[in-house]
């Protein structure tokens, strides 16, 4: 596969290819001889992974995004080590809650969005939130790049970083967990994994927990079909997915098996930057400003978050790795408290 070969040829941390960055992913595919079926398949990829169409993002960005997860095939794979291999039964918030419980009370401040970050002198940073202010020697920000637009920095961020932030953005991406009384797809001899050219769901995955008698198909709505679906009232959204699943699996009267839909729309979430799962870039940004632009520190402010990861960009794995990288930067750049003397 040409896409797989080209993404594997890139450096995960610092991709460099002005020709690729000059093209949208759609234009890149056409230049490689892609036919209508191949373009439709690629549209499923970009919608499922980033909520955008192939014409909306840089070819270099998308190929590097895939390389960060071991390649396109690895990112899409359910096999061991693949991007879709493991799930957390209790939900991924389990990790955040567990870490929070290990800290002393009052350390974590919720419902206090940061409004301004002021660097007054070396290793003296003032952070102003909506509720309180803090002083620190170093600051690490992990918010998505679209959220950085709402924070005032003094001194101002470098022009290249500002240009990167202004150029990044989300497509449309949301999901709905459809719970059923029985696993009808298994009864039909199917695994529950679907990719759809038509929608409203671009991808469907079996996310059941049989030990709890919970039979769930998680539907991912993205791009234009997702936007059209999200604009409908709840009952119509449920019915649209039931109709699609009936057609996909060849079953009738699926509504009788349906229990409940659990949905979340990230486009209403201000603190995620009104989107999910990862902001993408249009052509020309990476080659114009450099691949390290977003994650590069600015005086005593350090930048983490899954977008800044070299490995597993856009995933929780990438977010954790970026946090370790930013923490190491801070530790290595702090002035020693005690200087050794002979």
Q: How would you sum up this structure, described in words?
A:
It contains 14 helices and 11 strands. By secondary structure, it is an alpha+beta fold. The mean pLDDT is 93. α1 packs across α5 and α3 packs across α5 (59-68). β1 (114-121) and β2 (124-129) form a beta hairpin. Among the domains are: 2-76, Guanine Nucleotide Dissociation Inhibitor, domain 1, CATH 1.10.405.10; 173-271, Polyamine Oxidase, Chain A, domain 2 (Alpha-Beta Complex). The chain is 35% helix and 17% strand. It has a 5-stranded antiparallel sheet. A 4-stranded mixed sheet has the order 3-2-1-5, with no helix packed on it.
Entry summary:
With 342 residues, this protein is α+β, with helices and mostly antiparallel strands.
Q: Please provide the ordered H/E string of secondary-structure elements.
A: HHHHHHHEEEEHEHEHEEEHHEHEH
CATH domain class name of the domain at 173-271: Alpha Beta
Please state the second-level CATH architecture of the domain at 173-271.
Answer: Alpha-Beta Complex
- What characterizes the major β-sheet? 5 strands, antiparallel
* Rg for CA atoms: 22 Å
Q: Give the total of beta strands.
A: 11
Q: Gap between N and C termini, in Å?
A: 62 Å
SS-based class: alpha+beta
Percent of residues in beta strands? 15-25%
Remind me, CATH topology of the domain at 173-271? Polyamine Oxidase, Chain A, domain 2
| SS summary, helix count | 14
Topology of helices and strands:
Elements: H1 2-8, H2 18-21, H3 25-31, H4 36-50, H5 59-68, H6 72-76, H7 93-101, E1 114-121, E2 124-129, E3 133-136, E4 139-141, H8 145-148, E5 152-154, H9 159-167, E6 173-180, H10 184-187, E7 194-195, E8 201-206, E9 215-222, H11 223-230, H12 234-249, E10 258-265, H13 285-289, E11 301-303, H14 316-333
Parallel strand pairs: 1-5, 4-11
Antiparallel strand pairs: 1-2, 2-3, 6-9, 6-10, 7-8, 8-9
Helix pairs in contact: 1-5, 3-5
